[in-house]
């Protein structure tokens, strides 16, 4: 698989195919960046990612997506200092109702504060099953991380608008993408998203 696929992955423009039904079964390689590439999620130390408090939340909410999306599972992923790479697999077409992973910001959490340490499931319990798509899952995931930050004193946190996605084809490319994700921390110094900006503290304990 050519590395040209990733050349424009962080420019904030979508690579969505006009005729693609993003409820179809299949694998999707996704990337989300923080606003201005600010390192809210932590830092890479000796080739290993050290997550900040926000980084732990971003990781935990990503891991919880299958708990709320019946036919979706996560594959390889990594939370980097200012972006997240992950593979989401839709195991069958999302035509049947399912609970949205993290419903949109205003609708999902209006009057439903999510306190530090609380499980996202508590905020999800009152949400009715709905149909959805890849964009709904991503938008809702990003909104939920933002909401947690607003409620827990990290008001400066923000995502870059939109996200990058690549439809993984049945040509063995998923193995290349998995390696790319796994090797991201050790390649951080050469990453185009690397920034010298001061990041938030990176040694905060994980939220339990």
TrEMBL record:
Tell me which Gene Ontology terms the entry assigns under biological process: DNA transposition
Residue spans making up a coiled coil are none
Domain of life of the native organism: Bacteria
Every copy of the Transposase IS200-like domain together lies at: 23-184
Check the record and name the InterPro entries matching this protein: RAYT_transposase (IPR052715), Transposase_17 (IPR002686), Transposase_17_sf (IPR036515)
Molecular function per GO: sequence-specific DNA binding; transposase activity
For this entry, the protein name equals: Transposase
């Amino acid at each position: 698989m050519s590395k040209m696929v990733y050349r424009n992955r962080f420019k904030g423009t979508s690579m969505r195919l006009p005729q693609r039904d993003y409820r179809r079964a299949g694998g999707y390689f996704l990337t989300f960046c923080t606003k201005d590439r600010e390192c809210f999620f932590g830092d890479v130390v000796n080739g290993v990612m050290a997550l900040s408090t926000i980084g732990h939340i971003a990781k935990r909410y990503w891991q919880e997506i299958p708990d709320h999306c019946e036919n979706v599972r996560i594959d390889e992923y990594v939370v980097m200092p200012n972006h997240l790479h992950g593979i989401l697999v839709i195991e069958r077409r999302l035509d049947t109702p399912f609970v949205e992973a993290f419903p949109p910001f205003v609708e999902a959490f209006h009057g439903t504060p999510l306190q530090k340490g609380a499980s996202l499931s508590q905020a999800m319990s009152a949400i009715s099953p709905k149909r959805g798509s890849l964009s709904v899952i991503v938008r809702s995931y990003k909104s939920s991380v933002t909401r947690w930050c607003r409620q827990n004193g990290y008001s400066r946190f923000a995502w870059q608008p939109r996200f990058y996605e690549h439809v993984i084809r049945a040509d063995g490319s998923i193995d290349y993408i998995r390696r790319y994700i796994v090797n991201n921390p050790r390649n951080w110094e050469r990453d185009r998203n690397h920034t010298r900006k001061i990041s938030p503290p990176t040694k905060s304990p994980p939220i339990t």
